[in-house]
Amino acid sequence: MGKLLVLTGASGTLGRFLAPALAAQGYRLRLSDIVAFPDPLPEGASFHPADLADAGAVADLLAGCDAVLHFGGISVEKPWAQIVGPNLLGVTHIFEAARTPLPGHRMPRVIFASSNHTIGFYERGTVLSTDDPYRTDGYYGLSKAYGELLGRMMFDKHGVENVHLRIGSALPAPTEARHLATWLSLADLLRLVIAALEAAQTGHAIVWGVSANQGRWWQGDDAARIGYVPQDDAARFAPLPERGDALTRQYQGGSFAAQDNSRAG
Ligand code: 15L
After folding, report:
1. Which pLDDT value is given to residue 1?
2. 153 CB within 6 A, ligand 1
3. Mean pLDDT, to the nearest integer, of 115-123?
4. Which residue intervals define the domain NAD-dependent epimerase/dehydratase in the entry (predicted)?
């Protein structure tokens, strides 16, 4: 029988891609979101509505699972008050539930959809590894950096295995010049998720969620350790138009760095 996975954020864009794709690979899925799943349920999947800010609901959701793909929460820049519940409490509740499994069960592996907005304030063209210091471009990126740091602590202190996917721009196709560096094809996203699920051991790992783009800015990470080998390259869509104002074009995080930026002017 296939592994039992919990997928949070199942009703979001990436969740709706991953749910049928993972079901087709033979995984059993417990899908969750705060809003209804809008598509027909894939074979072997069930849907459980849950608010990530509710610790008890998250604990019930994870009971007995083999791994959790945590794609839930707010996925764009928002004021602090809107980020704190879904993102900060949410990822904390996921890890707290993972470290206290049901009797007779192992701790599930946590695979966290992190983001390039953890480093969004580096200038474009700067080559980065996952060891470079965080430069988040807002509260959303800060919540992702918190999730990565929480994963470090949860492995060191409690042995919860975890993989953080520092996703660039996960889209069917790149649409603007920035994506020549940041694009993650959906086929590579699926390869990345399966590598994170199937690696024999992960400890605490951080992997850039990016395709094999000739123009990528992101290099050193734990991809080889988990066996992720991307196959797509945004260069075949070049040239693509530049978008946005000067600040948007200056930073790796693009419009997130420019949003609500009081130094602009
Ligand atoms: C993200 O983290 C967002 O969730 C997504 O909507 C895109 O904006 C992406 O980053 C990106 O940077 O392109």
Report:
1. 81
2. no
3. 98
4. 6-169
